[in-house]
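Form 7-S
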Amino acid sequence: MNAPPAMKGASLALAAASGLLMTAAFPRLQWAWAAWVALLPLLSALREVGAAAAFRIGMTAGLCHALTLVYWVVPTMVNFGGLPYFVAVPILVLLAAYLALYWGAFAALLPGLGRKPLHLWAVIPFLWVALEYGRTHLFSGFPWATIRWIAG
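Output:
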């Protein structure tokens, strides 16, 4: 289904809002309440889209979240690894893209799980936790910044 450009822009803005809200729940701001509502804009953006569009929207949310949450990787690589910024920044972008894949997978799988709200509300937490578990353990894992961090 092709959405008009304004709808695409609105979907991407909602996705970005989700990513930024999720970041707000983590240390620096530590607005734990934001984790409870962070996925709502993303879920709103995913209404009436197919899996491919949902993946792109999810990737947008994931990139916004990862880039604003693990930004510290660049100064760490520069200050302690001796890398120049022109090497460290692309590494951050690649790491953020990898982390965003999980958000993209989450978003892409939702249209296939049905459109009934009650059904989705039952499935969404399990899907999210399964993907975070996978991210924590696959390819040697990246256990930082999971929802569990917020809960303590």
